[in-house]
């Protein structure tokens, strides 16, 4: 399968929206990147993870408390990914590229690889959102059916019951399998990764070793094999649940679409910006704590339209985007509460699992 092509713009919506966003930053006289508030949050999250690691590995607390700390570390790993790595990889964390590179490298210390992530997320997911066969985020086969065009298996009848278990495996699967698969095959799904330089190869293997030393070898030496295995499993499973749930609540819903390219031309019906709006949804936009923890990824519409703008600006930008969508009669997908998005996702999984029209 070749990557599909988007239709050419028939309206001036994209240019108009870009101008409105640009005018907003000009009027406010603020940069589109992060600011002191974001940097303070980044320090708080990194120090919280480091402190939790030191406490559970070096001071070996009571097993119940240790498991709670491991869950906290799983959540902090996801939050660092959302707030620091994600903005850094998109080049929006700072106006200085070396700081963006450093922020992006945070994912390397946590076991994954920012080079592979940029292809999977920045290139593939952002360009071809919700297109089966291209967007690798839809690939949870054979355990889950996430798009109507995917093959249905009998087990999918129950996927709306067991999906959380599948989501919990993401982080461990990512760190210990899919990164290596991308490295060996040189592809993310059907899309080739950029040619790796010597420095990229050294970074890939060097950080994998660092991660194994920090999160496997040293903890086993300090607390023993079985305690480490239990703690690390809890940590990895909880990180997986948080990471996967946030991304699925933005794209795999009853309201979002899953466009299929024309068989004859391989073209998509919509232009890129309309495609992004129809395949993406916001959730709980007024929940300030959730927005803070998730790095603004509950404002997924704004992120997909303007990925090079830091997430700290998304609440303000959402008002501009929403108003423009109203004026151009373009649906703006949003769930006002988290539970509404969760229920929409579960209903979507149930409908797909039963083979019902979506």
Automatic annotation (TrEMBL):
Alphabetized Pfam families for the sequence: FA_desaturase
Lineage: superkingdom: Bacteria
Domain Fatty acid desaturase: 62-334
Transmembrane helix as UniProt keyword: yes
Coiled coil: none
TM spans (from-to): 38-58, 64-86, 98-117, 160-177, 202-222, 228-250
UniProt keyword list: Membrane, Transmembrane, Transmembrane helix
Keyword Transferase attached: no
Protein name: Fatty acid desaturase family protein
């Amino acid at each position: 399968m070749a990557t599909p092509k988007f239709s050419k713009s028939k309206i001036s919506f994209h240019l108009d929206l870009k101008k409105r966003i640009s005018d907003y930053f000009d009027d406010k006289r603020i940069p589109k990147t992060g600011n002191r508030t974001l940097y303070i949050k980044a320090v708080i999250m990194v120090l919280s993870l480091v402190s939790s690691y030191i406490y559970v590995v070096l001071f070996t607390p009571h097993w119940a408390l240790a498991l709670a700390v491991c869950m906290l570390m799983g959540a902090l790993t996801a939050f660092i990914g959302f707030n620091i790595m994600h903005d850094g990889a998109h080049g929006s964390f700072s106006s200085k590229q070396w700081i963006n590179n450093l922020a992006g490298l945070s994912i390397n210390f946590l076991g994954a690889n920012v080079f592979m992530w940029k292809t999977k997320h920045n290139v593939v997911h952002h360009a071809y959102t919700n297109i089966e066969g291209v967007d690798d985020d839809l690939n949870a086969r054979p355990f889950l059916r996430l798009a109507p065009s995917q093959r249905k298996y009998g087990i999918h009848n129950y996927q709306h019951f067991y999906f959380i278990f599948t989501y919990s495996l993401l982080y461990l699967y990512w760190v210990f399998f899919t990164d290596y698969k991308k490295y060996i095959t040189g592809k993310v799904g059907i899309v080739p990764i950029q040619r790796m330089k010597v420095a990229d190869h050294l970074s890939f293997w060097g950080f994998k070793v660092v991660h194994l030393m920090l999160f496997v070898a040293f903890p086993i030496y300090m607390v023993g094999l079985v305690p480490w295995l239990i703690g690390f499993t809890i940590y990895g499973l909880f990180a997986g649940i948080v990471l996967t749930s946030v991304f699925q609540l933005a794209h795999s819903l009853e309201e979002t679409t899953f466009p299929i390219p024309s068989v004859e031309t391989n073209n998509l019906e919509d232009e890129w910006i309309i495609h992004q709006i129809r395949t993406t949804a916001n959730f709980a936009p007024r929940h300030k704590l959730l927005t803070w923890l998730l790095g603004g990824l509950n404002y997924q519409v704004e992120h997909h339209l303007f990925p090079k703008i830091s997430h700290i600006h998304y609440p303000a930008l959402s008002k501009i985007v929403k108003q423009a969508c109203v004026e151009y009669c373009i649906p703006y997908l949003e769930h006002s509460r988290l539970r509404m998005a969760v229920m929409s996702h579960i209903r979507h999984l149930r409908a797909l699992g039963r083979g019902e029209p979506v």
